[in-house]
Automatic annotation (TrEMBL):
Domain HTH tetR-type, residue spans: 21-81
Organism in which the protein naturally occurs: Actinomadura alba
Name used for this protein in its record: TetR/AcrR family transcriptional regulator
Residue ranges, annotated region (Disordered): 1-23
InterPro entries: Homeodomain-like_sf, HTH-type_TetR-like_transc_reg, HTH_TetR, Sco4008_C, Tet_transcr_reg_TetR-rel_C_sf
Species lineage: Bacteria, Bacillati, Actinomycetota, Actinomycetes, Streptosporangiales
Compositional bias annotation for Polar residues: 1-17
């Protein structure tokens, strides 16, 4: 098996007439779909290779194993999430709405992240890396907002962030209740669900006037 880097990725091999980058991107795209659908334990490298129109051996040439491939895919997805949902500490209800919009449009993204939380407990407990850096940055934003009077200082910033994230992903994490809402809610639209969670965050953390 080709030598791998510390990040779990091997040097990129090429074959005649084919771009290494294009093959690698096909592998990553196929892996994202496979992991979102089957989780890490249930994912199969042979299915990823088939979907990516390459060989199983070629997949292992780029990534030293399934966990390394998942880690790469998840890091890319979490980076995309952070870029798509910038937090304004003066408008936390709006931030919750942006998170809701993202996961409503990308249910596969939510599933992909959730599989990692369930199956890679050591990774979830990791205190370093891009995800933890993003969390630390948001906590600093919340502390700064408290220091200038935009957010109630009685709240611990870690609780603020955890509660907003949980409320914003309420419907992504409970599709069975979402299905029931389609015919049992007084207002069954997605817009009504969004409005409800934004209002919930507004009650907890009002927008700064």
């Amino acid at each position: 098996m080709p030598s791998s880097t510390a990040s779990g990725q091997a040097s990129d091999p090429t074959t005649a007439g084919e771009s290494a980058d294009s093959t690698r991107e096909r592998i990553v795209a196929a892996a994202k779909e496979e992991f979102a659908r089957h989780g890490i334990a249930g994912a199969r490298v042979d299915r990823i290779a088939k979907q990516a129109r390459t060989s199983k051996e070629r997949v292992y040439a780029y990534f030293r194993g399934k966990d390394a491939l998942y880690a790469h895919v998840a890091e890319r997805e979490l980076t995309a999430l952070a870029e798509a949902t910038q937090m304004d500490p003066a408008d936390l209800p709006g931030y919750a709405g942006h998170l809701f919009d993202h996961f409503t449009a990308r249910p596969d993204h939510y599933r992909l992240i959730t599989w990692g939380r369930l199956e890679l407990t050591e990774s979830a407990a990791n205190t370093t890396g891009p995800l933890q850096a993003t969390i630390a940055r948001k906590l600093d934003q919340l502390r700064d907002a408290q220091s200038i009077g935009l957010l109630d200082p009685a709240w611990d910033p870690v609780d603020v962030l955890a509660l907003i994230n949980q409320i914003a992903t309420t419907w992504a994490g409970q599709p069975e209740i979402g299905a029931a809402a389609a015919d049992q809610a007084a207002y069954p639209s997605i817009a009504a669900r969004r409005a409800a969670l934004v209002t919930a965050v507004e009650h907890l953390f009002p927008r700064a006037s």
